[in-house]
Automatic annotation (TrEMBL):
Domain of life: Eukaryota
GO (cellular component) term, any one: plasma membrane
Domain Fibronectin type-III: 8-109
InterPro entries: FN3_dom, FN3_sf, Ig-like_fold, Interferon/interleukin_rcp_dom, Type-II_Cytokine-TF_Rcpt
Name of this chain's protein: INLR1 protein
UniProt GO MF annotations: cytokine receptor activity
Amino acid sequence: SGCVQLLPPQNVTLMSKDFEMIFTWTPAEGSPPDVTYTVRYKSQDHMNKWIKVPKCKNIPRTSCILTCVIRNHYIKVQAQVKAVSGPLQSPWVKSQFKNYFAEVELAPPVLILNAKKNSIHVNASFSLPTCVEHLPWKYELNRWEAGSEDKKKYEAKFRKNSVIIDTTALRGNYCLSARSLYESIDFKYSEFSQPVCVLLNHKG
């Protein structure tokens, strides 16, 4: 075609982090300072149709969150990006295929404790994109006495009722920590949250 082209973006990757599906890339060496990027994606049920991502058109940043753009979280998707500067464009560069449902990476929940007279009510809060709230998320809660390795385990569904721990017989400093849990093809877990400790039934 004889027209000057921009060099395409590098290190194009579709990845999952903290419940999100994120498309990332790095600028080509020597990219002009005004370079912007445009993203499209396609899914395996419509292999010949690239779909525009309006919020990732002519953007200066080098990532695009696709979690809630994807219409079906159960099938594989692929993304592509091109660089644009004035009248110049780079060729499109494609990512690998990725399936949100099978490959999502979880983030640990944040625990909210409400200590009553003889019980603790534990709620877990998650920074979940609204479009995936319907998936079968759960969390697993560990309780142990500070300094001990003996952990008691509870399991609960996300956003459902709080876990209620009877503390009548517990005395001393107890710690709680939780991880997100998800069953797709097999079980997936997040890291455990930072422990939260509470002093129970102490005199004074």
